[in-house]
Amino acid sequence: MTIIQILFWLLSALVLLSAIMVVINRHPVYSVIWLIITFFGISGHYILLNAQFLAVVNIIVYAGAIMVLFLFVIMLMNLNKDMEPQKSKWLKLVGAIACGCLLLVLIAALKDIDINNQIAETNTGNIGLIENLGTVLFTKYVIPFEISSILFLSAMIGAVVIGKKD
Amino acid sequence: MDLMVIDIWLIIEKLALVAIVVSISLLIAMYSTYAERKVAAYLQDRRGPNRAGPFGILQPLADGGKLFFKEEIIPLTSSKFLFVLGPALAMITALMTSAVIPWGGTLNWFERNISLQIADINIGVLYIFGVISLSVYGIMIGGWASNNKFSLLAGIRGASQMISYELAMGLTLIALLMLTGSLKMSVIVEQQINGPWNIVYQPLGFLVFFICALAETNRTPFDLPEAENELNFGYHQEYSSMKLGFYLFAEYIAMFISSAIMATLYFGGYDIPFVNESSLSASIGHNLVTILGGFALLLKVSFFLFVFIWIRWTIPRFRYDQLMNLGWKKLIPLALFNMVITAVVILLLDK
Amino acid sequence: MNALIISAVFGVIMMFTGIFVKQKPVTRNIAIAGVALLLLVNILEMSGIDFFKVHTAGFMLFDRFALLFNSVAFGSTLIYFILSAPDMEKVGHYYADYFALIFFILCGVVLVASFQSLLILFLGIEIISIPLYILTGSNKRNLISNEASLKYFLMGAFSTGIMLMGITLLYGATGTFDTQFMNIETEGTSALVIAGMLLLFFSMAFKVSAVPFHFWTPDVYDGCPTVFTSFMATVVKSAAFVGFIRLFYDAFGSIHDDWKLVAAIITALTLLVGNITAVFQQSVKRMLAYSSISQAGFMLLGLLALNATSKEGIILYATAYSLATIGIFAILLKMNDHSFESFNGFARQQPLLAGVNVIFLLSLAGIPLTAGFLAKFYMLKATLESGDFLWLVILAVIMAAVSVYYYFRLIQAMYFKEGDGNAIEVSPGFKLMLVIVAACLIVLGVFPNLLLNWLYF
User: Fold this and answer.
1) CATH topology of domain A3-128
2) Dihedral sign computed on CA atoms, order B239, B244, B248, B251
3) Which chain A residues touch B144 with a CB distance below 8 Å?
4) Which residue from A2, B106, B221, C333 has the least number of CB within 10 angstroms?
5) What is the extent of the structural domain holding C217?
6) pLDDT tens per residue, range B248-268
7) Which chains would you list as touching A if contact means 3+ CB atom pairs under 8 Å?
8) Closest Cα partner for B124 from B142, B161, B98?
9) Is residue C188 classed as helix, strand or coil in its secondary structure?
10) C123, A113: Cβ pair inside 8 Å?
């Protein structure tokens, strides 16, 4: 086992564990904190792939901004574990079956992937560095990039329309 | 960069550097409390601390000792783990930023070039930004875990203030990055050593950045999270002993670090003003110049620390709506304007 | 490209109109002029005059199908603006911003109709969805509107997540976002591709509200301010269908046999549930919501068949369905409440409006001589041409017969029931416009090639 492999398994374990904790924790504030830890784990994976820019942007945007807003809402609404309504047994059963099916499909899909010739470029790839990302974004993917500005503009207008006092 | 081959000396060197940087930060933070009180005293025509040691120079030690020996109280109804996590996070995030700041050039010892920067990563400026965006959690989690309405309100106030001012800060950084063309802190300083400081090109950007830095460190006039008259004592109302100390201390460390960032980004970092480094190092030696550069940086930092303190004892606190108006309606448009102007000028000069 | 850029620019223009123009009629006229301009430049582009020479790098392809659908969408929006724009004033204070959001939605419609890359599909779907969440909740004082908006947002976000997951799996399997170059093998398709395709299928099925992904539709259509429901149920829905068909035609046409059965089951369920539930509705608005589900079932037949006839059919269907539904909603907007009873005695008060309303309803039900009939006919023909699914065709015909019941209930209320109803006042221009729309439906019902020839010449 090389250091990278050890780090990879550690991070994966951390991400999976914290992701599970997000779901099973009954207290919303703890859930959010576990989610933040999940994002850190994912950023760690990005760093292993030498995608430093993605790693740090993941932290700034998700851990630093979106999750703070989540915490905001949860704290202001004073959500406690007592307030979570009990769901009916049948609903739980149906949910379990549906998710089980999805899991089965995904496992079937992932089981026969040929991983040997598509191994990730740990630490050697440089597509995640900011210069390369910038170049690709402004040459090959410039059309989706520009179009996404329409998306953000409409979202901003929407936020103003919804948020402003009548 | 290969993680497989471990250079044992590099690790020792970096660990030593981390230890030195952290202890210097702590030391400076300690003495900024002293400076704060002395400057306040001077501005208010008093003497300030003068009992512990000559000129009261041991006062911070006495304060620290007092905090350590006070009784620890953890409120019964709070979430214990988060209650402890809050101050720890505040402290960690305050110290983490120091990793990418170049504290000086290179030292040439034992045939090794030792860089006085802990990690010269590709995304230096963004790293700082990322850590700053995380510093919200210390306040928020602490405020919430206290299970006290005042603390919660203060925590949410602090968080929304920090998020709002982060935007303007990011926009000024974009203008700066267009100028430097690199996110590496070392490259940014290198450029300023060889050319004029960035403040010459970005006076407006620096102004906005400075105001945002005040807000990010929760210093007056932006210290709403701890506004005594409105929120009792703010988000650390329920804290006692060293946990309170951590919160108070983290503020001073954040002050120190953000001064260092401002000095690095806009005021040439470890560049000694009006001196040509390369000709100086020919006459007095490379190592000495590096050390002098480090002192130059510390001097710039001290100046900023003084400005921070000066502002605190001069300007009254904002009201909350004024704070939000300033952030969203004044600083962000200003920063955007600055960004656009910078972009246009760069484009015109390139053509 | 013309329409994409101009619709985005008009979105921004409408934003500024909100600041500088205080008179609502002026705002409205600017918006109407904007859509008319969009329609014009789009028709010009169909005849080969492209103002913006943008190299799309294979992300989008403005073929006849895309351009023709864009024209249909812009035409429907134009009619919608002329008929219903005055009613938007009642919703809230941000009159100009609503128009801006609708222009952005049109931008998304153009993207969804012409994408060649999954990235653009995703962006298009999102550009359509986000303004719609806002429009749904635009009546801020009304709790039902708020609830509908939140529900729509949560479900929509969830389905977007599923779509992204599907796109990720497909990218992992094929190494490209480009729908033309996925090169999916017919034999021994990798399970990743199948999983990704299914996830995409489900998320698109959500967007077109196919059963069993339809649960949001009645609540959202009901809670949304009626004037926006009209837009949502017509232009947006047909755009989602065009995107759906385009995606499966381009990317998964080679493995048609693998997903045919899933599509058939979903189509059958949609036809059944949509029509049967619509029978029991007491409010016209809710009935129209379920009817939109049942019409989605017919449009799904086009997806199932996936041949040239189905492409013609979907264009015709989108036109017929959009025009008729916009017309009915325009009349519904003038009523005081949305129950069937409020239409009692309507024919005596407003004989002309009742008359055109009958034409719209007949078209929706698929009675011959209306465009709706031919649209359904094309769909069934396409399905028969593709073979295999005779049982589905029979089911669809039975369900069309069921739909006649609830559409005729409205006609019965208008003509054969006594009632004071609510005296509504409409302008002559409104009446004229409705008559024109009804005339369009009949003309298209007799000469569908007036529209469909554009696909080829």
Assistant:
1) Four Helix Bundle (Hemerythrin (Met), subunit A) (1.20.120)
2) negative
3) 29, 71, 75
4) A2
5) 1-251
6) 888 888 888 889 999 988 888
7) B, C
8) B98
9) coil
10) no
